[in-house]
Design goal:
- By secondary structure, this protein is α+β, with helices and mostly antiparallel strands.
- It has a single domain, classed as 3-Layer(aba) Sandwich (Aminopeptidase), CATH 3.40.630.
- The protein has five helices and six strands; from the N terminus they run αβββααβαβαβ.
- It has a six-stranded mixed sheet, with helices on both faces.
- The longest helix is centred in the C-terminal third of the chain and has 12 residues.
- It comes from Marinomonas sargassi.
- InterPro entries: Acyl_CoA_acyltransferase, GNAT_dom.
- This is GNAT family N-acetyltransferase.
Amino acid sequence: MKRFYQEHYPSGKPNKADPIWVIRHNAKILSAVRLKQLTSSQLLMAMVTAPPHRKSGLGSHLLKQIHTELKQTPCYCFALNHQVSFYIKNNFVIVDTPDLPEEIQSRYISYQQQGRKITAMKYYAE
């Protein structure tokens, strides 16, 4: 897992305390996602698909597979602006900054101040 993130998303360091789901083929990780558990919510982080497999539906498939986990506790993500449509197609909605829980809001504001081009989103369980 660590090697996969180092290769495809170096800032997405896996934390053993957070659940991580993967899609593998022939023992090789193709896609992964991590859910950081917070006090009253969770943050979808480090959603990564290996470049040769992007735009093949693996990310959507992975999110469908963890639907139960996503709806158990309010789940948020900070989507890169160019990925907002992907998350909307996968049951996330855009959330205004004042509507974010404090523990998420402070992270979001900090990331924006660092210059990250992100949009706060929340999983909407159907």
